[in-house]
Each structure stands twice: as C-alpha cells, then as structure tokens.
Amino acid sequence: MNRKPIGIFDSGIGGLTVVKEIEKRLPFEDIVYFGDTARVPYGSKSDKIVKTFSLQNSLFLLKFDVKMIVVACNTASAVALDYLKRLFKIPITGVIEPGVISALNKTKIKKIGVIGTYATINKNAYGIHLKEKDKTSKVFSVACPLFVPLAEENLVEDEFVDLIVKKYLAQLKYKDIDTLILGCTHYPILKKPIKKYVDNKVELVDSAEETAKEVERILSENGIKNDKNTKGRTDFFVSDIPHHFKDMGNRFLGREIETVIPVHPDESDSYFI
Amino acid sequence: MNRKPIGIFDSGIGGLTVVKEIEKRLPFEDIVYFGDTARVPYGSKSDKIVKTFSLQNSLFLLKFDVKMIVVACNTASAVALDYLKRLFKIPITGVIEPGVISALNKTKIKKIGVIGTYATINKNAYGIHLKEKDKTSKVFSVACPLFVPLAEENLVEDEFVDLIVKKYLAQLKYKDIDTLILGCTHYPILKKPIKKYVDNKVELVDSAEETAKEVERILSENGIKNDKNTKGRTDFFVSDIPHHFKDMGNRFLGREIETVIPVHPDESDSYFI
Fold this sequence. Notes:
2 copies of one chain form a homodimer. In chain A, 43% of the residues lie in helices and 16% in strands.
C-alpha cells in the first residue's frame, strides 16, 4: 500500500480521457495531472523537443512524490517513453502498449489500422509493439494531422468533417482491417464520424480504458495501491489556460473540472529545470 | 546608418512571409529571424503566456544586438506589442498597424472585415486601431481557428477547404464589406479559397508588404538604415525543427532556406532567461 499520488501528463487536455478511466477504475487513488497547454500540440514537433518536454513534465510531477507516471499522450509515449523508463526508478507506462493489447484482443483477422499524429505514425510505435506481440499481425498506419484541431474545436457534425475523415481514411478502406486504433487521446471525440466512415465491422480501440487497467496491474504488482477507502482527489495543473479550456476540459474528462492551477514556464521554480 | 541586423520573430513559420517582403524592399539589411516552432501555435493560448513567450523571443533577438524588432505574428502583435514597446529602447513594430493602414487605403465604403486567431480577434486589436485612425469605419471580425492547420498542411484545393471557409466567412458575406484583412501571417496561403468565397469586389489585405514599408520608414526616421550596398544575410533560428519544416518554410519564404539553427528551450543559455 502506498498513499502517494499517481502522476499523469499529456501535451494538453487529451490525457483527461485517461484520467476519466483511472478515476473510474481506481476511485481511491489521488492523481496529479499536468497538461502542457502552453506548448501543445506535440504531434507535429521533432523527437528531440518532445523528449525535452516529456522530461520537464516528468520532473514537475516528481516534485509531488508520485508513485508512478502515466504518459497519457500518444506522441510522448511513442517518442519519449523508453527514455523516461531508463531514467527514473518509479514505474512509468504509456498509452501505446495498452492500446496494442486491446487491439490484439479485438481483432479476428489480425489486420489492424492505426491513426495518429505525424510523430506517432512516423515512429511506428504501434507497428513495432503489435509485431512484437504477434508476428502474424498486419498493421496499416495513417497520420491525420487535422483531427486534433477538429477535436479541440468540437467540430464533429459539420459536412466537412466527413470529407476530412474520408481524405485520411480512404487508404485504409481497402486494407480489409477489422480493428482501428485511435492512436491519439484527442480522437475519441471524433468517434462518431470515424465510425460512420469505416466499415461497420471495424472495431475502434480507444486506449484510455486499457491504460487504466494497466495502471491497476502495475500498482498491484508493485504493492503500491492506495488502501484508504475514501474518494481520491485529482489536482489539475496546466502550463497555460487557453481559450475554451473549461469547455474542452469538461468534454474530455466527462465531468466538471473544479480547479485548475496554472504553472508558468518562465518561473524556473515551477517546472523548467 | 547602422549595420546591426533587424530582429524578427514569429510563433513559427508564418512570419517568413514578412521576411520575404523585407528582403525584397531592404536587400542590404541583415536579418535575424526566430520562429518559436517548439511552442507554436500562439493563437489559442492565453494573453499571459503569449506575453511571456514574446518577451523570451525578444530577449533572444537582443543577444544579436538587433537595431529594431519586428513582431511578425498577429497574435503576439495583438497581445504583447505595447508591453514590449514600453520595455525596450529600440524601435519595435508589429503587423497590425501596417495592415490597418493598408485596409484604410483600400476601402471605399469603410466597411472592413478582419479574420484571425481567437487571441487576435478577442483582443479586437484591429478594431481598436481602425477606429483610432478613422472613427467612421465599421469593422466585422471573425476567428477562424482551423485556418492555421489548413495552411500548415498546405490544404488549399480540397473540397472541405471551401466548406470550412464558408463556415467561418458566411457571417461576413452579408455585412457588405469591401476589404478583408488577413489578420494572421498563415492566411495568405489560403488566399485562393478565401478569394473564391468572398464577393469579387472584396479586396484582401495581407500585411506583410505594408509591414516591410513600415520597417523602412522606421529605419529612415531613426537614421539606422544600413549603408552598405552588398546583399544582406538572413539567419534563421527556430526552437524546433518540426515535420515538413523545409517544405513549409520554403513555401512561406518564397525561396529556399539554406540553413536553420535550432536553439533549444531547455538550454538556459540559448533563449530562456
């Protein structure tokens, strides 16, 4: 047993979908969330800068003496997870491996599609993990750079959303996949138009739920679950409070965010090292 | 006369459209450009963080002993220009006032539309400046948050681009404007679909050219023009080299960028103070 909080970071607010699932599955745990809203998005940026930001975000969380870190961002998971794991003593998990496990459980014909940001797709993190766990699986990946701004603007119903979905996913349509991994924490917001476009037989994988299971497994395995039985608290920190923050945040978290604490990159005692 | 360079910064690569015009008008001047590609975009972020970033970017340029600073970003001009002007001794100009002067020269009926990011539009910087210079002018503003990702992805021809343009600009269509300010350095990339949608009589204002004129005026007025008559050099610094950088950069600058030097936010001796 261990009453320290779980640390979670994301490039912005997408990781709140992961917080939501962890709160549901592990209601007694305390959580410290950091969203790097001042420097979002990570998906179009270089590996070097994503690693730097991920290191800074982890060091910020470590100030709260967190017992584990969840990298609740696909780009940071694809680019920086191994680096962070090598660096720090506490357990660290990303969102990619849980997504891979879920996809392999769902697929019947072992043809799996993956959509994500440039960084996630170019890094082929999903492809590598899928092949590692099942050599016979076939993986088809597409970067969908416009999906993040669409999700943040909550543009889901407009006619042009269907056309953008078609532009990116047309190339997957003829690959005969039966499972599609939403390889970005923003994409669940676009589930409806994606579902509408892909074949009815295609199952969508949203890794948030699977990540919460993985967090529970890690806590149990390491004997560091919280033994108290009162509702845990979640503290939200962000590097900026952008336009629409409340509205977006509530949508991703599925409940009202009461308080959010801004920590500013220019204050060297906050999170820049 | 003064042989020091002109400093120019932008949130990313949009400001290269301004560099292009300055290189054309003032070919003997040296230029130091800084693009904050690690933290782009600024448009959806808070005033506080945009001010902080603008200060850091200016301090980086000041290390090169620049003789003036051009804030080649509409968001930073709207939010941080007055603050920077109060702070520093050297002349500083943004892209908004030049855009306003150009629009007032073009309009015949004094009904002017302005499109830009959330930050620029919410700040009403164009509206305030237009009214200051001509009390009788009428201003209609719309934020177009999807235009930046469209421009960066070079999505100009697709059917959905016309639908997105229509979504944002429909409300301007019935305001009877004869002039439309492209209040974001990314938007000139989308001139074609914007022109196609708005009435033929509507003239588009791209502030880059007007900003170059203003820079020349400031240099002359202060007697700090470069008197050498050999071609000046432009040095490009960025806080990250993102995906597609070369391709995007060349498109915005209108020529090949030979060398670009990454300066990393984690190195405290580079540009973080």
